[in-house]
C-alpha cells in the first residue's frame, strides 16, 4: 500500500520523468522481496511484485485518459495522450535500468536464478531466428507479425483487466534487461559505464518505438474497458472513446512496423 501511494497520478502525468525513479524503486524492491521470500521462483515473482506495486497508478492514469476523451475537447492524438505515454515510457525505462543493473551487479549464481526464465526466453527467441522459419519469411515481416501478436495481448489484457497490459510490459522489461545485462557483462573490459551505455543503446534503439507501440495498444484497451464499466455503451461519448482507441491502435501498428525496420536494418549497422 505504501508503494502504491508514493506518487499522485495527476502529478505523475505533469512530471513523467519522475516515473523513471519510481520504476527503479518498484522493481528493486520486487527483486529484493522475491530473492528473500521465493528465491527459487524469483525470476517470475519479481515481475509479479513489480506489477502489483505499479498497477494502482497505471490504472489511475488510464482513468484520467478516458475522462479526457469525454471532455468534449478534440486534440491531436499525440498531444492528447502524450503525457500518459511519456509516463509509461519513463516507468518502463526505470524497470529496464533497474533490472539491468541488478543483472550486472549480482553474483553469477544469483543472476542465474533471478533471471532464469528470461534467459530461457532469449535462448528460444535466438533459436527461432536461426531456424528454418526465419529463412522462409522476410525478417522484417517475421518480427513485425510477432510484435503484432504481443500488441493484441496488450489490448486484450488491458480490456479484460483495465491495467492488465502492465504485466506484459514488465515482463518484456525483464527480458530486455536480461539481454542488456548479458551484453554489458561480456563487454566489461571496456569499462562498466561504456559497456552498460552501449548495451542500452543496442537494445533500446528499436526497443523504444516497439514498447511505445505496446503502451499505445494497452492504453487503447484500457480506456475502452473503463468506458464500458461506466455504462456508456452505445452512447455518443462511448463512440468517441472507441474511435480514439482505434486511432491509438492504428498508430501502434505503424510504430511496430517502423520498429521492425530499425531492428533489421539500423541496429545491426550501428552495433
What does this structure look like?
The termini are far apart. By secondary structure, this protein is mainly α. The chain has one domain. It contains eleven helices and no strands. It is globular.
What's the SSE blueprint?
Layout: H1 9-14, H2 18-37, H3 42-69, H4 77-105, H5 108-114, H6 116-129, H7 132-136, H8 139-161, H9 165-185, H10 192-229, H11 236-270
Brief overview, please?
With 271 residues, the protein is mostly helical. It contains 11 helices and no strands.
Globally, the shape reads: globular
Strand content: under 5%
Contiguous uncertain segments of 5+ residues: 130-136
Query: How many DSSP H or I helices?
Result: 11
| SSE series | HHHHHHHHHHH
How much is the average pLDDT?
A: 81
How many structural domains can be distinguished in the coordinates?
A: 1
Characterize the main sheet.
none
The helix-and-strand class reads mainly alpha
Radius of gyration: 19 Å
Helix content: over 70%
Number of strands: 0
User: Ends: how far apart?
Assistant: 42 Å
Highlighted features:
271 residues; mainly alpha
Amino acid at each position: 500500500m505504501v508503494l502504491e501511494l508514493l506518487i499522485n497520478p495527476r502529478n505523475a502525468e505533469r512530471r513523467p520523468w519522475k516515473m523513471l525513479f519510481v520504476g527503479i524503486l518498484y522493481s528493486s524492491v520486487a527483486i529484493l522481496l522475491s530473492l528473500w521470500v521465493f528465491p527459487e521462483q524469483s525470476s517470475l515473482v519479481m515481475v509479479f511484485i513489480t506489477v502489483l506495486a505499479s498497477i494502482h497508478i497505471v490504472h489511475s492514469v488510464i482513468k484520467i485518459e478516458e475522462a479526457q476523451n469525454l471532455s468534449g475537447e478534440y486534440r491531436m492524438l499525440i498531444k492528447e495522450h502524450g503525457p500518459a505515454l511519456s509516463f509509461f515510457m519513463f516507468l518502463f525505462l526505470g524497470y529496464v535500468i533497474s533490472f539491468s543493473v541488478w543483472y550486472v551487479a549480482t553474483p553469477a549464481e544469483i543472476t542465474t536464478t533471478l533471471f532464469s526464465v528470461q534467459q530461457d526466453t532469449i535462448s528460444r527467441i535466438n533459436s527461432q531466428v536461426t531456424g528454418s522459419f526465419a529463412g522462409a519469411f522476410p525478417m522484417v515481416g517475421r518480427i513485425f507479425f510477432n510484435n503484432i501478436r504481443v500488441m493484441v495481448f496488450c489490448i486484450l489484457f488491458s480490456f479484460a483487466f483495465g491495467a492488465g497490459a502492465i504485466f506484459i510490459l514488465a515482463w518484456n522489461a525483464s527480458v530486455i534487461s536480461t539481454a542488456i545485462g548479458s551484453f554489458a557483462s561480456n563487454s566489461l573490459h571496456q569499462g562498466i559505464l561504456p559497456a552498460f551505455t552501449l548495451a542500452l543503446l543496442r537494445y533500446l534503439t528499436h526497443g523504444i518505438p516497439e514498447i511505445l507501440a505496446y503502451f499505445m495498444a494497452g492504453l487503447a484497451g484500457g480506456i475502452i474497458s473503463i468506458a464500458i464499466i461506466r455504462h456508456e455503451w452505445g452512447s455518443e461519448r462511448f463512440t468517441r472513446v472507441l474511435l480514439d482507441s482505434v486511432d491509438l491502435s492504428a498508430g501502434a501498428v505503424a510504430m511496430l512496423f517502423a520498429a521492425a525496420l530499425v531492428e533489421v536494418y539500423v541496429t545491426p549497422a550501428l552495433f
